[in-house]
Specification:
Residues 26-97 form the Lipid A biosynthesis N-terminal domain. The structure is a single chain. By secondary structure, the chain is mainly alpha-helical. It starts with a helix and ends with a helix. The chain is 88% helix and 0% strand.
């Protein structure tokens, strides 16, 4: 059992400490922003007492996803690159639709 714990400690050190650099820091910052979109969505839904996707969700998705794409490109991870690149199109499209909806609503008011 002590051997397993020692191997786990060595693995954790190798993964989280030994290879730590600026790119790993960027990856953690990116993941933080990407994860914040779920917190924002959850809080907005709790306030509304129904499922809500606020505009901040899409901005956190876009910012966090962009940083994660940069990180994935630097790591040369094709699966991660493909996933984040596709997501960026979806986030931009949703923000575009929201902007068009607001513009149309402003035109109706005038």
């Amino acid at each position: 059992m002590a051997n397993v714990l020692q191997e786990l400690a060595t693995w954790l050190h190798d993964v989280f400490v030994k290879q730590f650099d600026t790119w790993i820091l960027l990856g953690f910052v990116a993941q933080f922003f990407f994860s914040m979109r779920f917190v924002v969505q959850w809080v907005a839904s709790e306030k509304a007492k129904r499922s809500v996707v606020p505009i901040a969700f899409w901005f956190f998705s876009l910012f966090g996803g962009s940083l994660l794409l940069i990180y994935a490109i630097q790591r040369q991870d094709p699966v991660f690159i493909a996933g984040q690149a596709l997501g960026l199109f979806i986030y931009i499209r949703n923000l575009w639709l929201i902007a068009n909806e607001r513009k149309a609503a402003m035109t109706k008011v005038d």
